[in-house]
Design brief:
The protein is α/β, with parallel strands linked by helices and 269 residues long. 42% of the residues lie in helices and 15% in strands. The structure holds the ligand O=c1ccn([C@@H]2O[C@H](COP(=O)(O)O)[C@@H](O)[C@H]2O)c(=O)[nH]1. GO terms for molecular function: orotidine-5'-phosphate decarboxylase activity.
């Protein structure tokens, strides 16, 4: 998907909501466990109930990998369902990969060619040759971890042994990579106070912002400092939407939660 198509969808829906599909067998409603593929049955119901309020979906790959081959089948069915029934939606494989060049090419093939996601999250710490293979794919996007939402982000990412914080180095250096216009960045909603400065370094890039909802990040604070002229934000909520109810009404309640977030986002557009 082109960035322009994403921006158009955001403007049409007046939403920059990304629904996280962190689908956990221990948290899905009991009645779904009798289904042939409970993870997919859950995801399909969530997508059906939330898609009019969202512009993006982000399955976190760990939740599928944890189930071996059956989990990969559920993931494949989910991305195929999204691509077939809602091709306008932006899809993110939250895989946080990163390795030497030839291996990175294999990861890129897996998520862009085989599974046909629009984007994949990548850990940038192995440097240029570990990222550029992902950037060879036209109209696919590579989302680099910059300043993550978790407390451990302060262990390394805000460290500045040589005078520049690591997350700033990631933003500045990656902008010199081949096809850097296909880069986006992860910035946690719990780090909203950093967004003003981040926007001076990457004024035009899209930011994927997890951490609203279960992790306590504020949507208002993120919007205040993170929006740019092309909107430039995808705000993710996973548990806050998909597990808002554990009863038979889970999809309806998830739809209501997504609608609430969309309403708050629309005020900023
Ligand atoms: O910095 C990061 C990077 C990725 N994530 C992922 O986003 C979702 C957040 O889920 P919630 O349930 O809304 O907290 C999850 O898949 C994380 O692995 C992140 O939280 N922070």
């Amino acid at each position: 998907m082109t960035t322009q198509a994403l921006v158009t969808q955001i403007r049409e829906k007046r939403s920059f909501l990304c629904v996280g599909l962190d689908t956990d067998m221990n948290k899905i409603p009991e009645h779904l466990k009798a289904e042939e593929d409970p993870l997919f049955a859950f995801n399909k119901a969530i997508i059906d109930a939330t898609h009019e309020y969202a512009v993006a979906y982000k399955p976190n790959i760990a939740f599928y990998e944890a189930h071996g081959i059956e989990g990969w089948k559920s993931l494949k069915k989910t991305i195929d369902y999204l691509n077939k029934h809602h091709p306008e939606l932006f899809t993110i494989a939250d895989a946080k990969r990163g390795d030497i060049g030839n291996t990175a090419t294999m990861y890129a093939n897996a998520f862009f060619k085989d599974l046909n996601f629009d984007s994949v999250t990548v850990a940038p710490y192995m440097g240029r040759d570990s990222v550029e293979p992902f950037l060879q794919f036209k109209n696919k996007h590579t989302i680099l971890l910059a300043l993550t939402s978790n407390p451990g982000a302060f262990d390394f990412q805000t460290g500045s042994d040589d005078g520049e914080e690591l997350y700033k180095k990631v933003l500045r250096t990656s902008a010199t990579y081949e096809n850097a216009s296909q880069l986006m960045y992860v910035v946690g909603a719990t780090k909203a106070e950093y967004l003003k400065e981040i926007r001076t370094l990457v004024p035009d890039s899209f930011l994927l912002v997890p951490g609203v909802g279960a992790q306590g990040g504020s949507l208002e604070e993120v919007c205040k400092y993170g929006l740019n002229s092309q909107v430039g934000l995808l705000i993710n909520s996973s548990r806050g939407i998909i597990y808002a109810s554990s009863g038979e009404d889970f999809a309806e309640v998830a739809g209501n939660k997504a609608a609430e977030l969309q309403e708050q986002m629309a005020k900023w557009l």
